[in-house]
Amino acid sequence: KLYPFCRLSDTANVLIMPAFHAASISTKMLAELGGATVMGPMLTGLQYPIQIATLGSKDS
Questions:
Q1: In this structure, what DSSP letter does residue 42 have?
Q2: What is the pLDDT of residues 33-44, one digit of tens each?
Q3: What domain count does the chain have?
C-alpha cells in the first residue's frame, strides 16, 4: 500500500510482528544469523514516528 507521506523511492524490507516478544526474537535472530541492520521498535500513528532506544542500545 502506498502512502502519500512516504519518502521511499524503492521497496523496503519491513517486518511487522504481532507482539513484542515475537519481534524481539525475530530481530535478534536476523541480526546475528543474517547480518541484518535492525531499526526498532518504532511507534507509528503519531505526528512523527518514534524509535525507542534502551540504555543498552548500540549506536549501529
A1: E
A2: 887 777 766 666
A3: 1
Predicted pLDDT at 41? 66
Name the nearest CA neighbour of 15 among 1, 34, 30: 30
Question: 51 and 42 in contact (C-beta within 8 Å)?
Answer: yes
Q: How many CB atoms lie within 10 A of CB 24?
A: 13
Range of the domain at 34: 20-51
Helix ranges, 1-60 (H): 20-34
Beta bridge partners of 35: none
Residue 24 lies in a domain: yes
Prediction pTM value: 0.44
Q: How many residues does the chain have?
A: 60
The three cell numbers of residue 47 are 505526528
